[in-house]
Structures are given as C-alpha cells and as structure tokens.
Amino acid sequence: MDQDLDQPVTRSRGPGGLGLSGKLLLLTVPLVMIAAILLYVPAIANFWVNRLNDRVAAANTAALVLDAAPLGMVPDSLSRQILKSINARAVAIKMGQQRRLLASDNLPSAIEHDVDLRDMTVWEAITGSFQMMLETGNQPIRIVGPGVGNAQFVEIVTDELPLRQAMYRFSRNVVVVALIIGVLTAGLVYLALHYLFVRPMRRLTASLVGFHENPESSARIIVPSQRSDEIGVAERELSDMQRDLMSMLNQKSRLAALGLAVSKINHDLRNLLASAQLLSDQLASVPDPRVQRFAPKLVRSLERAIAFCQSTLSYGRAQEAAPDRRMLLIEPVVLEVRETAGLASDASIMWVAAIERGLAVDADPDHLFRVLLNLVRNAAQALESHSSGDGGPQQIRITGKREGAVAVLEVSDTGPGIPQRTREHLFEAFQTSGRPGGSGLGLAIAAELIRAHGGDIHLVEGTIGATFRIVIPDRPVELLSIRNERARA
Fold first, then answer.
1. Residue 273: closest CA among 292, 301, 252
2. Of 66, 69, 108, whose CA–CA distance to 86 is shortest?
3. Could you tell me which CATH number the domain at 326-385+392-481 has?
4. Going by DSSP bridges, is the β-strand pair 395-403/350-355 parallel, antiparallel, or unpaired?
5. Considering only CA atoms, which of 88, 86, 85, 94 is closest in space to residue 67?
6. Would you tell me how many other CB atoms lie within 10 Å of the CB of residue 9?
7. What is the DSSP letter of 349?
8. CB burial class (10 A; 0-12, 13-18, 19+) of residue 213?
9. Which residues contact residue 287 at a Cβ distance below 8 angstroms, ignoring those fewer than 6 apart?
10. Tell me: the pLDDT tens digits for 50-63?
11. CA gap 191, 28 in Å, rounded
12. Which one is predicted more confidently, 196 or 281?
C-alpha cells in the first residue's frame, strides 16, 4: 500500500446519540399529535354549535307548547318546569313585528354575550367555542336561532356553565382518544418505516464501516437484496463499488510490493557495486599493461550495472530470507564494512572501533554486514554533507559489548544528527532520506533484518550527531540437546 493509504484516518464507527430509529420515533409522535390537535379544533367548534342548536331546538319545542296555550292559561309552575327541562331562564319568539316573551324565570338584568346561529361562519364558531372554554363563572348567554312555523326566530337565555362543562368532558374524551390513536399510529408508522427503511440503512451502514476497516477482504462486501426500489439500487451499486475498489486495492498492493522490492534490491546492490567501483579505481592505478587494458572496461561495466539497477525486475514480492544464524566474531565484519564503505583510505573521516576483545554475536553474517554497512554509509554521507569548515572532528565510531546473553553494538557519528520531524518515521521506507539520490530505505532494511533476529534497533537520544544502538539476543537453547551433544562427544 502507498503512503496515502497507510495514513490512519479517524472515523466514526456508528451513530452517536440517538440513532435513525430514535429520531424517527421522536419525529413521528409530534406529527401525529399535531394532526390530532388540528382535528380537535374543528371538532370542539362543531360540538359547541351542535349544543347551541340543541338548545334552540328545545326552545322551539317549548315555544310551540307555550304559544299554543291561551294567553295567561299556562301556570307559572308549569312554565318554570318547561324552562328547567330545557335548562333555560327565558324563551321568546318573534312573529312579524311582534316579539313575545313566552316564559321567564330569574331573568338577569343584563346579558353580556349573544350568539346568533342564523349566519355564523366557521371562524366565528371556532373563536366562540374557545372563548367560552377560557371564560370562568356562570354568566347567562342569549342564543338566537331560526324559528319554526310562523316565527321568524326564537331566543333562549341560558347559563353557559353547563355548556362549558360539557365541552370540557368532550375535550377530555377527545384527548384520550387522540393519545391512544396517536400512540398506535406512531407505533405502526415507526414499525413500518423501521422495517422498510431503517433496517436496510443499518445494513448499508454496517457494510460501509466494515469495508472501511478492511477494504481488501471480500467478506466485507455487502450481498445485495432483491429489492427493486432505491435501497435495492443502492445495495447493488455499493456491492459493485466495493468489488471494484477491492480489486484496485489488491492490484495497488501488488504494485507497491513490487516497487518496494525493486527499491530494496536496488539499494543494497548499488552499495555493493559502488564498493566494487572503488576497487576498480584502485586497479586503474596499477602499472601492469594488462590491468590498464581491462580496467576501463571493468569501470564501464560497473557503471552499466549500477544503471541497470534502476530497471524493473521480475514481478513479485520481495521478502528477506530467514537469517542463517551462527556465532561469529564481530571484528572481522566491522573491518570488512570499513573497507567496503571506502573509509580505510579516507583520511578526512576518523574511524574508531571500540569492541570488546573476542566479542561474538549470534547472527547471520550477511545480514549483520548489510545492517552495519547501511548505518556506516549513512554516517559517512551525513559527515560529507556537513563538512562546512567549522573545524569540528569528523568521526565514525563503532562500539560493541556483551551484556549477558545479549550483544550490543553502537554506530555513531559527529554529524548534524537527525531532524526531529523525521524521527517519528525513522525506520519506515521512503521516509527518512533527505539527501539527493537517497531512497530512504537504509534504516528500513536495517530494522527489518534486526527484527528477524529477534533484536531491536533504535536511535539513542541526547548524543552528538546520531547514534544507533543494535541489540541482538542469543538464540535460546534447550538443555537436553546440549547434554545429548556432550554425551555424543
């Protein structure tokens, strides 16, 4: 994978707080309640108008009875019973130009509210009903409605408290029924939307999160359903996109592995060829005629080989071979590293080797040689780039000692050191090279080889220049095998 794809990206793994189902429920319940309120407003207005019409109808019936009797023939007790039966204080009718009071009982001196049902609009019915519900007390009201027979209209004076109490009972019943219907409706709407939309969306979200965690796994690809709506289209398109992206990532991984393999091989092979080129330069100074004849050809061949290192090798993935470990003396390896790096004849850089006498390391000779050569070359290049004429000593120092079953080696220089911004990715490929022509692979290769030995390599803080410490533990041995070997000996 390339650098961009390796960068960690922080993403949310799931919905925070209320999920889609909770938000859907919180949205459904208020909408249902708003619908219930919108239905309640005309319902209470219609209830109020119907109750007024009932009073007018009762008043018309009482008016027919009272008007049919001869004038003065209806006893007051009967009149009061009739008014009590229709919950009225007075009943009057208008016939022609004459307005007659048919019956009255405890008629108030003044009436503050008049309700005319003959030409009442919808808005007047709504405002009138809520006005009556919001008032207090038991004020009398006069209701005017169409009359029957020859009467132009009928009037009835009644108390508003019984009517208000009836409206309260109706409102309470409406609220209870609305709550029951609202909860049932909200539940049904919620379940329907949950199974039709929320669950498929959760499935899509889970697939996206899982695919983000491991985009190269085919198990994270969503299996589309047979739905023919937009969600089914989204599932099929997401599945196709995930398959295409997984294929692209796999191909890119193979190409990245190829690039890393070519770079690693090129890095070490170029170092070896550069060392051979130094030796060929020394051969060019030999006065032997045959050497003088073949030396230029050798130099040109080495130059071509170095150039060919940049060409593409066979497609595949490079993996370091397992180390062939053995106990070896470190001093000959250090001497070979110095000669290979061209520092044996370089008087500008001081070479210091402080290694314990007879120090042996349990390691692969080739791997240890490559690690030390990479570190020494990096140190030499750092000193060459830092040669600013400040008069300071230019020195490369290699130390070695044993601490129990662990061999500790240190390679240090007196160069400018490693910038702070590059220390976080010090042993990552293509991260730490700051010089022209560098590949940024030396430390990455060294770290990989040391880790294969079960050891550790790190930068020592607080030193002049740069100091790298290598720790290689000895391989654990079985006591039984040692005893058997001694017995055979």
1. 301
2. 66
3. 3.30.565.10
4. parallel
5. 94
6. 6
7. S
8. exposed
9. none
10. 988 888 888 888 77
11. 11
12. 196
